[in-house]
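Researcher: Quick test of sequence recovery. Tokens follow.
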């Protein structure tokens, strides 16, 4: 039987939003699997990845420059993790400011398009590649007050499928990961404290707890590895059963 490996030795990877909680965990897991990782965030993240670069993923020029630099410094690219997300505006559409709506779409959705556009030529040069889009359970279902976030993540799920079809014959896969609530500063800030976040979000998940960043990193490693070689155009819901009800 062929070895379906989680080994990423020597593979060049770019992770966006790498200074955030899930991003850091993903970079650490890919690095531990042998990948050489360029960590991108609005300001170059410290102590994460082999190469740290400042890049606003909604800025086409900045994306082109950062991807070119990452590819040059890592000696090629074959993994892209689109993980960056803007702060989530909360409220119904009469309460969400146009600028906040636009920012959510520009970072969460257009950012993934721009990064994919810049990375695919590097994948082609190597004859293989994988794009992992970090979506959300709220791209599948929604909840009051999250119109911009949910719409951006639903769009990202759709973008994943089209990317998969467009590049299937080029040995380039496109997959997505949809976390449920994960214990991060994102939900701690929303709830006020770690305890309040667990109390608020755990009951929404049939498993009775929120997710851990390490669980998202493990799912990400599977999806970008050869073990998931036949997985493309698909989403992995790592949501503790949130969407199963
Ligand atoms: N935390 C959760 O409960 C949860 C649940 C479902 C999905 N997610 C998704 O997982 C991903 C990571 O979430 P997190 O909790 O680590 O969030 P986070 O807010 O800690 O990290 C997001 C990172 O993206 C960066 N970022 C924002 N705008 C950017 C831009 N224009 N260009 C580059 N970087 C930018 C931020 O600076 C931040 O470091 C996001 O896509 C989020 O939507 C998170």
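Model:
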């Amino acid at each position: 039987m062929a070895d379906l490996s989680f080994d990423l030795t020597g593979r060049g990877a770019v992770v966006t939003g790498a200074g955030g909680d899930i991003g850091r965990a993903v970079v650490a897991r890919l690095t531990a699997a042998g990948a050489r990782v360029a960590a991108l965030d609005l300001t170059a993240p410290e102590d994460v990845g082999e190469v740290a670069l400042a890049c606003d993923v909604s800025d086409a020029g900045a994306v082109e420059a950062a991807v070119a630099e990452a590819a040059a410094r890592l000696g090629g690219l074959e993994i892209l993790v689109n993980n960056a997300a803007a702060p989530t505006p909360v409220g119904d559409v009469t309460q969400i400011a146009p600028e906040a709506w636009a920012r959510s779409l520009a970072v969460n959705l257009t950012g993934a398009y721009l990064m994919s556009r810049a990375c695919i030529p590097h994948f082609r040069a190597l004859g293989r590649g994988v794009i992992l889009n970090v979506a959300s359970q709220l791209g599948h279902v929604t909840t009051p007050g999250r119109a911009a976030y949910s719409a951006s993540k639903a769009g990202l799920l759709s973008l994943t499928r089209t990317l998969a079809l467009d590049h299937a014959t080029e040995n380039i896969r496109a997959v997505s990961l949809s976390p449920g609530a994960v214990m991060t500063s994102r939900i701690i800030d929303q709830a006020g404290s770690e305890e309040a976040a667990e109390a608020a979000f755990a009951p929404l998940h049939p498993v009775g707890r929120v997710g851990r960043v390490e669980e998202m990193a493990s799912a990400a490693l599977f999806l970008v590895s050869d073990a998931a070689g036949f997985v493309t155009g698909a989403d992995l819901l790592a949501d503790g059963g949130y969407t199963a009800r």
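The chain has one domain: 12-180+212-237.
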